Amino acid sequence: MNAPARFFSTLEPLRYVGRDSRDPFGFRWYDRDQIVLGKRMEDHLRFAVAYWHSFTWPGGDPFGGETFLRPWMHGSDEMDLARAKADVAFDMFRILDVPYFCFHDRDIAPEGKTLKESNANVRAIADIFAKKMESSKVKLLWGTANLFSHRRFMSGASTNPDPDVFAYSASQVKNVMEITHELGGENYVLWGGREGYETLLNTDLKRELDQMGRFLNLVVEHKYKIGFKGTILIEPKPQEPTKHQYDFDVSTVYGLLCRAGLEKEVKVNVEANHATLAGHSFEHEIAMAAALGIFGSIDMNKGDAQSGWDTDQFPTNVEDTALAMYEILRAGGYTTGGTNFDAKIRRQSIDPEDLILAHVAAMDVCAHALLVAADMLKDGALQQAVDDRYAGWNEPQNKAMLQPGTTLASIAARAEAENLDPQPRSGRQERLEALVGSYFR
Amino acid sequence: MNAPARFFSTLEPLRYVGRDSRDPFGFRWYDRDQIVLGKRMEDHLRFAVAYWHSFTWPGGDPFGGETFLRPWMHGSDEMDLARAKADVAFDMFRILDVPYFCFHDRDIAPEGKTLKESNANVRAIADIFAKKMESSKVKLLWGTANLFSHRRFMSGASTNPDPDVFAYSASQVKNVMEITHELGGENYVLWGGREGYETLLNTDLKRELDQMGRFLNLVVEHKYKIGFKGTILIEPKPQEPTKHQYDFDVSTVYGLLCRAGLEKEVKVNVEANHATLAGHSFEHEIAMAAALGIFGSIDMNKGDAQSGWDTDQFPTNVEDTALAMYEILRAGGYTTGGTNFDAKIRRQSIDPEDLILAHVAAMDVCAHALLVAADMLKDGALQQAVDDRYAGWNEPQNKAMLQPGTTLASIAARAEAENLDPQPRSGRQERLEALVGSYFR
Amino acid sequence: MNAPARFFSTLEPLRYVGRDSRDPFGFRWYDRDQIVLGKRMEDHLRFAVAYWHSFTWPGGDPFGGETFLRPWMHGSDEMDLARAKADVAFDMFRILDVPYFCFHDRDIAPEGKTLKESNANVRAIADIFAKKMESSKVKLLWGTANLFSHRRFMSGASTNPDPDVFAYSASQVKNVMEITHELGGENYVLWGGREGYETLLNTDLKRELDQMGRFLNLVVEHKYKIGFKGTILIEPKPQEPTKHQYDFDVSTVYGLLCRAGLEKEVKVNVEANHATLAGHSFEHEIAMAAALGIFGSIDMNKGDAQSGWDTDQFPTNVEDTALAMYEILRAGGYTTGGTNFDAKIRRQSIDPEDLILAHVAAMDVCAHALLVAADMLKDGALQQAVDDRYAGWNEPQNKAMLQPGTTLASIAARAEAENLDPQPRSGRQERLEALVGSYFR
Amino acid sequence: MNAPARFFSTLEPLRYVGRDSRDPFGFRWYDRDQIVLGKRMEDHLRFAVAYWHSFTWPGGDPFGGETFLRPWMHGSDEMDLARAKADVAFDMFRILDVPYFCFHDRDIAPEGKTLKESNANVRAIADIFAKKMESSKVKLLWGTANLFSHRRFMSGASTNPDPDVFAYSASQVKNVMEITHELGGENYVLWGGREGYETLLNTDLKRELDQMGRFLNLVVEHKYKIGFKGTILIEPKPQEPTKHQYDFDVSTVYGLLCRAGLEKEVKVNVEANHATLAGHSFEHEIAMAAALGIFGSIDMNKGDAQSGWDTDQFPTNVEDTALAMYEILRAGGYTTGGTNFDAKIRRQSIDPEDLILAHVAAMDVCAHALLVAADMLKDGALQQAVDDRYAGWNEPQNKAMLQPGTTLASIAARAEAENLDPQPRSGRQERLEALVGSYFR
């Protein structure tokens, strides 16, 4: 293959060029050092590039094969290719000047002849990463194990009817968790791509939920054992590839965690397109995670509003994104989490530049959205409207209804005695939407 | 209005006429005394007629008004009309010879000038019910309070920003719970029609979840206080009327219950059409409820597979219904639950006979499905296939992985030491589907 | 009821206040006299207010009744109420200073005891409109007949199995067409709310398509007979209220028109929410209509991206709206069409101000979107990218392939002789999306 | 690879074993010589096996690779593999004893180094087919060209911005059309997998529609030139792989055909799963095609009712299938068309037997459905109900309304003069659904 430095014709890290520039290779909104709500923009957004879509996906879809013909995908020595891929990847991190990246084990290193060799391959590439991370400022937002691509996982990983797959998965997860820890990763993610089922006819639902709960406990115990301080995250998705996934949405994951006794230990990595496929808005899933105390990180992308599968497109809509950013800010912002672009260029976007430009545009959308969301928060008018709406709950007799001691009977008695006849008050949705519109610039 | 006995031209209770009959006014499959798996068919199915769709809905839809012109919907004395409606309803229960019915408070009695009067109206009609129930064999499967139709509930009931609506709801629920208890109802249901939100912009999600959890606790405490032995049920629905409902699906309700500390106290009433609107099959929701230990009862109907709202049609497909019945049987059948027809005739079905025939056909579909499901269970071949698939988990070292003591590290070490290379085995979906097909008759 | 002037506390027509204003009762973007691409903004956008959602809908939904309690909806003399409603409506037109409005016959006047009286009622109110239109500058964008609300239309209007309904519909349409003509209406719209079916089991599809085609021809013939110079428009919708509507989407309507020989006579009124319910983006439907030569007008609103029914919300997203506006501009802009707000405030938005503010915000969204779309067009970079992509088709041998004379065999022979091996070129979607983003301000 | 005879352990053609058999390798319903409505069951159903899903798909999905490891997919000489695949395929046709098969050019033969070589490869395998077809009784239902898998087609085939792809496609189609003709194929199908677009931003919709219309005309002209007597079919699909496909559904294709002047020349191949993805029931699409005079053939499969992509599952539901079969019978049955299983076993169904059993079960579902549909037709009660519903249209004055000569004004005048007040009659949906249920056995 070609020398990796040649893959991208862009050589210098991209810079903020300002709103009036039309240069597609500069940031119009993402000004990493700009202070927003007392923090650098970069520290708010904590952007990460995902290894899989950008460097491992060849451009296929269910009706067609490879379109990209990446040089690092064609050759005989797979470890050589993996090293070449790493060169390209870190070159892109450098060009985009992003603070983080994310990876699955199978993205970065080929499967070996044995489990041990597979794990060793991952470690070998991770060692290369370690050096590259030292010499650049890019950090690891999270690592994860790919427990869904190989045919051994066709019926699940931890929820597989075959216990050997459970054990195999344990080995793979342990390896990536430890590598993530060693690389200073800030989170470890579990995406249960095939933790679900195709048909109840061949499935023992309860047993599989138990297996999954047990696996999560093993992971959390191992986290403590190795001293990993990062967050364990589950990434909800309602379906695809499986007919039903056990980690359907944020609320479902919360229930799973309660069932496994882990609701204080594990958080969620919320993906925009997974949210919409589950029948929710992206901001809903973030707000719900925050309300349940399990908000962790996000996978930023967007789905096609009329397509019923995971299109994983780069975000383009500032207004939609601002509503998500606002919920993140209301939740206090990220702690260990970040904004990972789990987004892929369209399979027709075959030029190397397409990869760069897609990220630039998406980073700008997020930066613009952050500024809008910060204004929404600073201005406080939206929050005030919410507070006003619930103000009645501050009165002592109303507060009391939410406290132990009051009973249904006592509340009912008062309602009847006072002849309550509550009059509805406008929800004012349109004027609040207009208010949101007024923050755009 | 006309004398109620005249509303239906059918006068005699409908009877089993056998499979070869073409009489639409007889049951071809529902033979209530037939013994299935050691129990009378009637005792398996525990059919209930729903008051609302059958007697209270005038046939309107979002683009058009009343089509049915029921005599009991037009008159000046609303309590008179309510009594006439009760006559027609009990006449239909008698004709269909169903063991149960279900109602909302506002279905059976008009709203009064005050909360107290509204509650009294419900009680007055309930007194009539009590007498009618004595003289017929129909029983109450469940009662519930309508906390969504009146404009005071436009922003929710227990989750309303206005605490007075919370209190008002408490009074209404207390009244219906007590009436349900007095009428010997076997369950009390909560459907949170407007417990959800339209826009996050005016909503405090966490506060509303807290209010809802608190309300559920008040209800459960009241249940014990009054000595009600029935089951408290929540009916999940993903959306409609609200953009997002807090009781989205079975798994979400499980999480809510855990959060409120009520996962041992409250169960779910699973509706077919709500399941499919949530992106699940009906059988999935039943199986999930069973796996989580919260299966209670069902609302039997079907949605239109291509329509995105609650069409609440009568079930027509034996094969689909059999898969649901199979999961109910696998879960041990109903305890306090039953098969409530939360189904409405199409608004063009304006003849009184349409109401009767829709129920007859649906009861036949369910009875037929029960027979198929019972054969599936008795034969055991499906269960055997599932057991075989998970058989590896019976081996001691595999069982051990699910027990405390093993660690991720110990499992991983063994996987590597044994050089595990699990080979996939066919999920055999098509042959299991064919097997299901072979039980149909 | 109250004097209409009192319904809205806003008394003066609303004015452009500029982008930096936070006054919700002023336009931040809609500056009607601003020249955009050589035309006044007002003349580009041709805003219309819809009578039905704003003045006739009481705030009900399938699970709850009236929330708005509008004074003109409660009283004993229906014609008096209709006149009061007209006063409020024209007051709102004045306050918003919109150039157009739209109506259904049943929105503006009550049904009478006979068909003749119903038609006369419409005419009586139309006479009031005529006077009000003279003294204000508001014009009629289009009129239409409501052939779906009353129970007589429950099985369709022109496609009804009962020929008397066809005849009844003819009378109603004739009346409204003539009134529309007399009021100077610029279009006449047909929305086939119940021209469709619920179940094929009771439907003769071909016959109903024939009836519909015939009715359209009658309408077009009548247009010429009365000298109406406006455009006849069909408004596509895929389903709801019916399971399947015959006017599913733009392409389906085109096929219907071809079948009826009317593809040069009738155009479409494209609604955003109907487009998305049909599985299309709004801009797709506009572009398709333009490509097929049948683009007429639009119903501006938005759906909820996760809800499966017609939510008819006011548009809030400038970026989405700009893509639609761009397609309208590319199609040459409106001729007789306009931007009709077929949008309703949420049923919780019960204050009179909500109605005003929703329109103001939506008009601003459209005005902002128009400015962006105009820049996209003026700049030309998007169009250039498209032209470049198809440039190969300008070469003579390629042009020839699209002309009579070439054959499959001759083209194939050349392809083989020249050993064609076409290399894909990037579709550059992300960089074009980024380019679109750069026009926002 | 193994000798093909060894791939399936089943050696003898499968036979009808009757309803009471539990042998999964025998037909319980499909009794090919049984006379139904005067015709052999085989001649009604005209089953075809599809080459692609059964022999060419390796079991991958968007999140995982090959699971099947078919012996003919792994080797160095691609033409050798293609011959081995043909052996297995014809062995399966023999075992299933189906009368037809279908193929894409790329299913049966590998792409060569040049277009000419690719075409020659197809011809070489077709020659093998010709011999195998002679010695067996299997016939070709239809052939088609794969114009979507290779990256050259990533932006479409006939609608590609690059005219060379148009020419390349012409060569490929010409080759497969001629081979189809020589093999005695009864139809030629066009599936426009990538005839659509991903984003309007890079698309000239009108130009692409023109290109597509031109290509269709070239194909039809070539049909006449070579004397092919079969039917040219288009297979509608709403989206996937593209965001929007130009052949969205039956009605859209009808519009396209009208635009190209081909509505008498080209028919449709209706697929169940494509119908449901387009928001229609399968039977709707068949009935619509029949009403428009373009019904040709079907691709039999089913989608998952809760999944938003093409799952292409084998049909399992007799009741759903019977409604489709009923519409086919009402349309007069197939002429050149047939029942092609465009269905794939799940990727976890990795045993050779799974392939056989899936087809057996599906053929039984169709045979059972045919019997039910035939009874529905013979009995005539459904048709009678429809005829009764429209009976009013047989009256002279009502017939006249559909004929030239009457005008909107004359109809309106009569409606008013006669004071028409049409009373709705029950649509009787539930009783008709019950009636359908009564035909099941």
Q: What are the SSEs and their pairings?
A:
The structure is a homotetramer of 441-residue chains.
Chain A: E1 35-36, E2 39-40, H1 41-45, E3 47-50, H2 51-56, H3 78-96, E4 100-104, H4 105-108, H5 115-135, E5 139-144, H6 163-182, E6 187-190, E7 196-197, H7 205-226, E8 231-234, E9 244-245, H8 250-259, E10 266-271, H9 272-277, H10 282-292, E11 295-300, H11 318-330, E12 339-341, H12 352-379, H13 381-389, H14 396-401, H15 408-417, H16 429-438
Parallel strand pairs in A: 3-4, 3-12, 4-5, 5-6, 6-8, 8-10, 10-11, 11-12
Antiparallel strand pairs in A: 1-2, 7-9
Care to give the gist of this entry?
With 441 residues, chain A is of the alpha/beta class.
